[in-house]
Amino acid sequence: MKSSRFWAWATFTVGALYFFVPLIATLEFSLRMRRGEYSFDAYRVVFGDDRFQATFTYSVVVAILTILLGVLVVVPTAYWIRLRMPHLRPVVEFITLLPLIIPAIVIVFGYIRMYGSSSPLPFLATARGTDALLIIGYATLALPYMYRAVDTGLRTIDVRTLTEAAQILGAGWTTIISRVILPNVLIAVLSGAFLSFAIVIGEFTMASLLNRPAFGPYLQNIGANRAYEPAALAVLAFAITWACMSVIQILSRFAPKSANQPR
Fold first, then answer.
1. pTM, entire model
2. Which residues contact 174 (CB under 8 A, 6 or more apart)?
3. How many domains would you assign to the chain?
4. Each residue of 168-200: pLDDT tens digit?
5. Domain assignment present for 89
6. Could you tell me if residue 14 is inside a domain?
7. Cα Rg of the chain, angstroms
């Protein structure tokens, strides 16, 4: 018993050191911009950079639109699969896993070939069209996480009973999804939304190849030309990601228990 506890703590300690030592070293290096003393000069330079403000704002807006698109696509789909077509669930789950198998660079090159300026649907001919294509691409990358979060939320409620009750009261399908189903899986949707946000903020491949002013390419550009600012940006990006993960953990505590579990 003592031996197993020792090895459990030893494994935890090694894992914690492996995780935190590089992070602490990066944080310490980001504070050494002023020679001979620690300072927040690197962070001050980053926050004062117009490109940082522009690219971060752009990525935040794109992330919000990506989340909205994901909710509009995933929630009705997962609801309908669970209510009327459960036999198709393995197929849908396989399809939602494809973005994890197919590299983003393959997806974006497919977009370039299909939606270039000489194609019948020239999305890439205009900035707004390219932005729309980027949002669709990000929604595709976030699909595995959003779908599984929503599907897990749907397992915690009695979808069929709620639907029948709403239909008895005269509700249509749009009302059922927006005013009955969505509020009951809102915590699961928010979990998927924060995962999507974390993915979009740091994504580089699609934004770079589509030549959009996103935060990911900005991180890469700064990393190639500066010393201390990239370390500060790495710490900030890590803080944003962990903030999203922390919010998900907090929200999961308020999630209802599965409808199949005894009360």
1. 0.83
2. none
3. 1
4. 988 888 999 988 998 888 888 988 888 898 889
5. yes
6. no
7. 22
Residue whose entry in the numeric block shows the structure tokens 């590089």: 22
Buried residues in 82-111 as b, exposed as e (16+ CB within 10 A): beeeeeeeeebeeebeebeeeebeebbeeb
Length of the chain as a residue count: 263
Q: Is residue 262's pLDDT more than 70? A: no
For residue 55, give both structure tokens.
């690219």
**Token pair 């599984």 is at which residue?**
148
Query: In the prediction, which pLDDT does 234 show?
Result: 85
Question: For residue 48, what are its two tokens?
Answer: 């004062």
Q: How far apart are CA 215 and CA 217, in angstroms?
A: 6
**pLDDT surpasses 70 at 38:** yes
Range of the domain at 146: 31-254
Instruction: Check which CATH number belongs to the domain holding 215 and give it.
Output: 1.10.3720.10
Residue 12 lies in a domain: no
